Amino acid sequence: MPHRTRPMTALLVFTGLNVVLVSTITPVYDFVCFLPYWERRREQRRLEREALAHRSQSS
Questions:
Q1: Does residue 48 lie within any of the structural domains?
Q2: Quick check: pTM over 0.90?
């Protein structure tokens, strides 16, 4: 006898899993995107661009 499918249970599990994933994506995104490493790197790149612009203006 084949395994009996339960479409309503599968739909509820799928929807619940998606709700959990969607609700946790914002803190994870904030944690990854706003790490101090990225802030330092962004500042370093800004300083390098300013130094390069200053060098090209003075020559």
A1: yes
A2: no
